Amino acid sequence: MSGHHIIPFSVYRNVLLALLALTILTVAVAKPVSGFDAGVFNFLIAMGIASVKAGLVMAFFMQLKYDNKLYLAIIVSTVLFLALLFGIVMIDWASRAPVMSTL
Amino acid sequence: MSSAADRSKNYLNEESGLWSWLTTLDHKRIGIMYMITVMFFFLIGGVFALLIRAELFSVGPTVVEGAAQYNQLMTFHGAIMVFMVIIPGIPAFLGNFFLPLQIGAKDVAFPKVNLMSWYCLIIGAAISFYSLFFNGADTGWTFYTPYSIETDNGTILLVLGAFVMGFSSILTGVNFVATTHRLRAPGMGFFQMPLFVWGLYSTAILQVVATPVLGITLLLLAAEKTMGIGFFDPALGGDPVLFQHFFWFYSHPAVYIMILPAMGIISELITTFSRKVIFGYKAIAFSSVGIAAVSFFVWGHHMFVSGQSQLAGVIFSFLTMLVGVPTAIKTFNWVATMYKGSIQFQSPMLYAMGFLFLFTIGGVTGVMLAVMAVDVHFHDTYFVVAHFHYVMVGGTLMAIMGGIYYWFPKMFGKMYNEFMAQLSFLFIFVGFNVTFFPQFILGAQGMPRRYFDYLPAFEPLNRVSTVGSWLIGIGFLIGLYVIVSGMLKGKKAPDNPWGAKTLEWQTSSPPPHTNFHEQPVVTGGPYEYR
Amino acid sequence: MFWVNKAHAGNTFMPPQASNFAESVDTLYGFLYYASLISCILVIGGLIYFAVKYKRKTATDKTAYIAHNALLEFLWSFIPFVVFLVVFAWGWKVFYDMRNAPKDALEVHVVGQKWNWNFIYKSGRKSGGEFTVPVNTPVKLIMSSRDVLHSFFVPSFRVKQDVVPGRYTSLWFTATKEGDFNVFCTEYCGTGHSTMLAKVKVVSKAEYENWLENDPYKGLSLAEVGQKVYAGACIACHNTTDVKKIGPGFAGLWGTDRKLTDGSAVKFDEAYVKESIVNPNAKKAEGYENAVMTSFQGQLSEDEITGVIEYLKTLKK
Amino acid sequence: MSTVNKPRSEGGHAFHFDNAEHEFETSKFGIWLFLCTEVLMFGGLFVAYFLFEHKFPETFIEGATYLDWKFGAVNTAVLLLSSFTMVLSIYYAQNNKTKQCVNMLFITLGCGFIFMGIKYLEYMHKIELGLLPGEMFSFTGEVGASNLGLYFSTYYMMTGLHGSHVLVGMGLIVWCIVRARRGEYNSKYFTTLECVGLFWHLVDLIWIYLFPLLYLVD
Questions:
Q1: Which one of B158, B275, B300, B467 is most buried, by most CB atoms within 10 A?
Q2: Which residues contact C232 (CB under 8 A, 6 or more apart)?
């Protein structure tokens, strides 16, 4: 019964603690709160921590770690499609030749 | 449990009464409900189309009360045909009925969700039509901003209706992907699936992945109309072209939601009526999935002159060319399947050949439109109108009609009137070409689409086109007669009148509630005509 | 590709070639046209040939078991692919030329609005509904919209570009033939979409200079512009006194309440006058049920209409 | 076919599945597909966010200063906790402990209420100040960046859509509580509980990204 995998209570507890700790970390390294400034990396750090948190939720709370890998493929391809939408619109916006009025 | 007594019971007479239909969880009954719904909407959309053509018969106002009313007709014709007819047409109607049968399942994975999906379509359609009480909508089915934000009428209801109908599409998609993955009969691997299932499966993936983006786009549009959130409003920092990106990110794959299952039907029809194994099974199967995947990368070919950047245009034009390849492969494979076959000209086969004829023209004109410099001239002219009607009507609708006749004996256990069905085909096929071929020429000459009125120079060809639309109208009326009379008083049909090989023909006609009298076991490919 | 271009004129249904792009677009289109024709003949011809040749003869016909053929399948994937790449690159090249105007092009500003086109020259010359350009001179249009999306399309020039509110878009061409050519709006913009037409007049360079010089409104106040417009457009049906002609006389009307045919009343103000010029039969005044006025939409520029309004203000009883 | 008429909590299954395990796996697959559509729907908003953030960086930095990160941080913790109690309710169901299962669901529901309560306070505060989306933006204080209304459009659209999902999730949890109290969930059957749980985790997941994106922009 692969789908009925029972994960020990302690795992859930540890994941929750890790998630809360990461939340505190997010706030602690945020420039508007603590003044910590890593320049261009600020955004990447914030997104990185969020992604680690998301990974923990998916792996343990949503049991992806133990489940059919097809589900993981579904989510990953979903995110790729979104990246595609963002990427091409960004290309469009960034490469539009501005036309100015000459009056 | 396959006693003779069992055979008298089928999904049609298992229960009776309207209520038993409205609350049914049987995929076959839901399929029939979709059939009736879609045919009803098709009639409304078709009447609108005839009115549009009648208006364009002569220069100046004719039957329609002014441009405002014409624009409403044009909008509702588009919205009805896209959201209520062609998108649910094959997957939700024929797919619902035959996907489980073709893979040897007893039902779809989530019967309740299946029924909910039908109600979503009905509710969404009701909301859309409700907009008619608020002066309707005149934005075209594409809802381009900022016009759709400024226009003051029931547009928002049409938008919300489309949003709800989107849920119908999503739920059907989820259901079909899960069904295809989990409910195949023992022995049926992915490469033993009939090609119609491959088409539906690819379509279902598109429905799941593309439709939510339409959902959020329409929500944003509704928020823009009610609260002025400014995403698409340059005065507030937004970008009207962004709406087009969002819209076509859904609506281009939606075009393949419409055509992929049609291609699946054609694969079935050509093998059965040529009594021959399909040529290049894997190529056709993979090209379905390939088209589905690449279709997400090409939306910007609707926007070459929209003000998107040149670089974006080049990327989209290139990727669009890639979609052409699998489509070409399929077409050649179908023709090759007929080579050294034993071809029988029953009406489903006539529709399949009609499909090949019209879809080829629709396809090559599609390539023309993907070439940037040429598209600059053709964009938003009647050339585009002709092109997509050749694909959507000449392709999808032909396939639906062919599919209905092909599976009619299975669905109702009765035969239809073959002569009348062929007559109907003749009217539709000839009428279609008379209607839409002149529109290629009109477009090349520069007549823009969505025009209530036009220059006198365009009149002769418009007249031809309008006359053609009457022929199509007659053809579909005959078709309606064939279907209704067949349902009411057709001769009893055998279980497998065409000698086809796929699983749905192995059960009785009409099938019992649980589809098969014994669990079918698959031992080979779907088209083993040896 | 001379033969293709030659062949196009009679067979491929394109409008007359009147710009520098027309020939290159038509050559490419001609290639596509014949390539498409050939593939249609192959597919549809094959379809019909097989249908006739392999028609079912007996109920138990045996058929060949041909599941696939690697060479054939490779060929009919690869050949279309190559053709597609060729037309893609070719289309790109022509498109590139269309989108990159020469630096010294003559610039004309185009303003789209529901539902007319207005043109503004650098000299200050304005015109509505039609504009004049010299032949054999690169012209760059700098376009903007006052309301919704429009699209500027000249079939004979093979150029088209959407006009987007909130920013400028541009297109360019060199007209190669003198004459009048149609301009269409091809992006759906509402009720008047199909009447949002204009003309481009291509004239010789000398004529163009002459036209530019002789601005009929040069140095005039708005009311004076209005008077000129009145003398050309309105005088046939409207008096400057309060005497009725075909339509009402204008004197003393400004600011009064007008009774309409449907019994309601409307103030004779800027909005009403403008509406009556653009859409004359929407709100007819009482007593003029049977009078018919043609819309001046597209005929008069925005400024001319404003001029007329200013002029009407000056007409006292 | 003998299992057909058995209730699910005793290991029965719908007629078109082979067995209960088959049904459970299929339901889960369906729910994952549905989650994928949810991700895409929010994804559209995320894409819009990134695009506009890229176009008007100052606007977004200034916009975020009108938000109180403490509210956001507390809400993050609340949702994480609720996700934790949600998995525990499944954990107890798997171990046939109905009472604890129900209790955990109640805590999850309570967390939902706390989240929405805080959201309500935030919204009220902003509406009073006139920090409204797009053209309704009527803030009278000193404003530096242009198009601040656009920031609040993204804020309200994203948190609004998220909030509506929290509400739907809470409704589903109430339904689960009713069924759990009837003793329908046990080691043999907890499919709906699992599916609602997956939905609830997704709502949590989205908030994990919304929090830094909206409250901590720099």
A1: B158
A2: none
Beta strands of C41-168 (E only): which ranges?
Answer: 106-113, 116-121, 126-128, 130-134, 138-145, 150-154, 159-163
Q: What angle do CA D38, B292, B108 make, to 5 degrees?
A: 65
| Average pLDDT, consecutive stretches of 10 residues, N- to C-terminus, chain B (530 residues) | 61 89 95 96 96 94 88 95 94 96 95 96 96 90 91 89 96 96 94 96 94 94 91 90 94 93 96 94 93 91 93 94 92 94 94 96 95 95 96 95 96 95 97 96 94 93 96 96 95 93 92 91 88
The whole-number pLDDT of residue B392 equals 94
Backbone angles phi, psi at C181, to 5 degrees: -130, 145
**Cα–Cα nearest to D52, from D64, D44, D60:** D60
What is the DSSP code (8-state) at residue C175?
B
Q: Which of the listed residues C158, C192, C213 is the one where a domain comes to its end?
A: C213
CATH number reported for the structural domain that contains residue B429 in this entry: 1.20.210.10
Q: Which residue has the tokens 């006389």?
A: C249
Q: Give the count of domains, chain B.
A: 1
pLDDT of residue C1: 34
Tell me C315's DSSP state: -
Question: Would you call B223 and D133 a contact, using CB atoms and an 8 Å cutoff?
Answer: yes
Please give the structure tokens belonging to residue C110: 């185009």
Contacts of C169 in chain A (CB under 8 A): 99
Residue-range domain boundaries for chain A: 7-66, 67-97
CB contact under 8 A, A3 and D36: no
Q: Is A95 on the interface with B (CB under 8 A)?
A: yes
Distances (CA, A) of D3 to A39, C168, D10: 63, 70, 9
With tokens 């009785």, the residue in question is: B508
- In angstroms and rounded to an integer, the radius of gyration of the C-alpha atoms of chain A is 20
* Domain housing B440: 27-506
- Residue B2 falls within a domain, yes or no? no
Nearest to C169 among A99, A102, A103 (CB): A99
Give the whole-angstrom CA distance, residue B83 versus residue D128: 41
The answer to the question of residue B11 being in a domain is no
> B525 in a domain, yes or no?
no
- The radius of gyration of chain C's CA atoms, rounded to the nearest angstrom, is 28
| Region label for D23, one of left (φ > 0), alpha (ψ between -120 and 50) or beta (otherwise) | alpha
From the CB of residue A90, how many other CB atoms can be counted at a distance below 10 Å? 16
Coil, strand, or helix at residue B165?
helix
Nearest Cα residue to B442 out of B394, B385, B383, B391: B383
pTM: 0.90
- Read off the pLDDT of residues C8-27 as tens digits, 9 standing for 90 and up: 444 568 899 999 999 999 99
* pLDDT tens-place string over residues A1-56: 344 678 889 999 999 999 999 999 999 888 777 777 777 788 889 899 999 999 99
Contact list in D for residue A46 (CB cut-off 8 A) is 212-213, 216
B129 found inside a domain:
yes
pLDDT at res. B289: 92
**What domains can you pick out in chain D, each with its CATH number?**
18-215 (1.20.120.80)
Domain that holds residue C162: 106-213
B11's torsion region: left (phi>0), alpha (psi -120 to 50) or beta?
alpha
Chains D and C touch (3+ CB pairs under 8 A): no
Find chain D residues with C-beta within 8 A of A60's C-beta. 87
Domain boundary (C76, C99, C122) is at C99
Instruction: Assign 3-state DSSP to chain A and report helix, strand, coil percentages, each to 5.
Output: 75, 0, 25
CA distance linking residue B247 with residue C313, whole number of Å: 47
| φ, ψ (nearest 5 deg) of residue B160 | -65, -35
The whole-angstrom distance between D194's CA and the closest CA on chain A is 9
pLDDT band for C221, please (50, 70, 90 cuts). Answer: confident
